């Protein structure tokens, strides 16, 4: 297939992307940001006992009938129960226990009186306020009951869910294993950041850009490497990567130049070529193939193309691999505040900044080979020939990054 629309391309990408089925067990804090692989059922009630919500005295509400500041009730304080302690006796009429917030309420009590409504007595206490039964009283299991499914399989775990798991007493969490992705760049002109730049060379920015975004998506990077511009070397790197990866991303060498080796690589590998070229800018010469069941998406070398494609094309694949629905694309309609200088001949993605209501295009160079003018941008405007969204005041279709 050639010259696909973006929507058709995404359909193809997803058709060859299989959800990861394997689960693994990780420690509670390492589960942050991961997808739960099983329903999580409470193994006990929480709180595990009736507990005091105030510092004061636990007693029987019936004993306090009619209590007022001028008509105090006096109870015998039979002991003190601090948080973490447990008194297994039963409180009788006329008795109270001194109790602290979070401590287990002993049998026989049906309310807790705040200490501010007492004389703070130690052997006996004078109480100045009547109470209803079960007033200022927290019941066992009111947070959750034993046997309740608190978190469902497929839930993305964030700080709240980590807290809930902790309150369940869970230390090891079953999660879907991460999507494994290899990033292989090509190009004899590119060098590693940190190396001394030689004449005719530039630094490889695609590798780091893609790796960073894939990490945002929760992927595990199996290999991040620059491969020499040689079809045999690249084919070998793809073979190796396919053994340990769910997805292979390459950049560069997909166009029509003499050194555009990725077409030859697909032939050497005997991979199934699914499509080449999309009706979009940037990223027009994108090539998609499948090698022994592993999808390989080969992006153009232009850094802005990599930046657009990672959210537009790769993100839905990672969403499917990991079943992480928080990765679904978020689109908004915003009012464009300025004109896009270039003509829009087809589908085009333009770097921009949105505040959620309006969207503004940087008045700097917009070239697919240039990344620096994307600094501070938080969205892409999706422009299409014959549609609104490229002139000031028009409604623009915005894809949030
Ligand atoms: N005669 C034609 N020339 C070109 C066409 C065409 O249709 N006919 N298409 C143009 C378009 S559109 C694109 S996009 C590029 C795509 O070229 P490739 O995907 O083969 O990519 P390269 O040539 O390898 O690189 C393009 C550009 O990006 C730089 N680059 C490459 N890798 C990196 C990297 N890892 N980090 C930073 N920059 C990188 C590379 O030096 C080139 O400047 O082809 C057009 N030409
Ligand atoms: O597809 Mo290219 O990235 O338009 O310049």
TrEMBL record:
Give the reactions, separated by semicolons, that this protein catalyses: adenylyl-molybdopterin + molybdate = Mo-molybdopterin + AMP + H(+)
Q: What EC number(s) is this enzyme filed under?
A: 2.10.1.1
Which cofactors, if any, are listed as required?
Answer: Mg(2+)
One Pfam family matching this protein? MoCF_biosynth
Quote the pathway field: Cofactor biosynthesis; molybdopterin biosynthesis
Q: Where is the MoaB/Mog domain?
A: 182-320
Keywords of this entry: Magnesium, Metal-binding, Molybdenum, Molybdenum cofactor biosynthesis, Transferase
Q: Which InterPro entries match?
A: MoaB/Mog-like_dom_sf (IPR036425), MoaB/Mog_dom (IPR001453), MoeA-like (IPR038987), MoeA_C_domain_IV (IPR005111), MoeA_C_domain_IV_sf (IPR036688), MoeA_linker/N (IPR005110), MoeA_linker/N_sf (IPR036135)
Q: Which Gene3D superfamilies match?
A: MoaB/Mog-like domain, MoeA, C-terminal, domain IV, Molybdopterin biosynthesis moea protein, domain 2, Molybdopterin biosynthesis moea protein, domain 3
| SMART domains the UniProt entry points to | MoCF_biosynth
Please give the function described in this protein's UniProt entry. Answer: Catalyzes the insertion of molybdate into adenylated molybdopterin with the concomitant release of AMP.
The family note in this entry says: Belongs to the MoeA family.
List the protein's name: Molybdopterin molybdenumtransferase
Q: Which organism is it from?
A: Blautia intestinihominis
Traced from the root, the source organism's taxonomic lineage reads: Bacteria, Bacillati, Bacillota, Clostridia, Lachnospirales
């Amino acid at each position: 297939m050639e010259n696909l629309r973006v929507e058709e391309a995404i359909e193809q990408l997803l058709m060859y992307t299989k959800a990861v089925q394997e689960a693994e067990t990780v420690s509670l804090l390492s589960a942050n940001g991961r997808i739960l692989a099983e329903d999580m059922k409470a193994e006990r009630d929480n709180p595990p006992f009736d507990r005091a919500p105030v510092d004061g005295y636990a007693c029987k509400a019936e004993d306090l009938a009619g209590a007022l500041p001028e008509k105090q009730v006096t109870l015998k304080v039979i002991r003190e129960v601090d948080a973490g302690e447990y008194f297994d006796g039963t409180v009788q009429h006329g008795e109270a226990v001194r109790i602290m917030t979070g401590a287990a309420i002993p049998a026989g009590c049906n309310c807790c009186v705040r200490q501010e409504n007492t004389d703070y007595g130690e052997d006996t206490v004078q109480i100045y306020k009547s109470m209803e039964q079960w007033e200022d009283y927290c019941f066992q299991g009111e947070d959750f009951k034993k046997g309740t499914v608190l978190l469902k399989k497929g839930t993305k775990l964030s700080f709240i869910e980590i807290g809930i798991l902790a309150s369940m007493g869970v230390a090891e969490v079953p999660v879907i294993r991460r999507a494994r992705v290899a990033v292989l760049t090509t190009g004899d002109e590119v060098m590693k950041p940190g190396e001394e730049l030689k004449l005719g060379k530039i630094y490889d920015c695609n590798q780091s850009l893609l790796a960073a975004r894939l990490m945002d998506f929760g992927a595990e990077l199996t290999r991040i490497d620059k491969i020499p511009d040689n079809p045999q070397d690249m084919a070998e790197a793809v073979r190796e990567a396919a053994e340990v990866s769910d997805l292979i991303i390459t950049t560069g060498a997909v166009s029509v130049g003499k050194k555009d080796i990725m077409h030859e690589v697909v032939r050497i590998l005997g991979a199934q070529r699914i499509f080449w070229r999309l009706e979009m800018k940037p990223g027009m010469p994108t090539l998609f193939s499948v090698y022994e069941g592993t999808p390989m998406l080969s992006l153009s070398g232009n850094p802005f193309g990599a930046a657009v494609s990672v959210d537009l094309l790769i993100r839905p694949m990672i969403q499917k691999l990991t079943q992480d629905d928080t990765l679904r694309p978020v689109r908004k309609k915003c009012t464009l505040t300025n004109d896009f200088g270039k003509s829009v001949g087809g589908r085009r993605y333009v770097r921009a900044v949105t505040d959620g209501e309006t969207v503004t295009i940087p008045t700097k160079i917009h070239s697919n080979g240039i990344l620096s003018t994307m600094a501070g941008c938080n969205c892409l405007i999706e422009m299409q020939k014959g549609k609104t969204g490229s002139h000031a005041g028009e409604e623009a279709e915005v894809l949030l990054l």
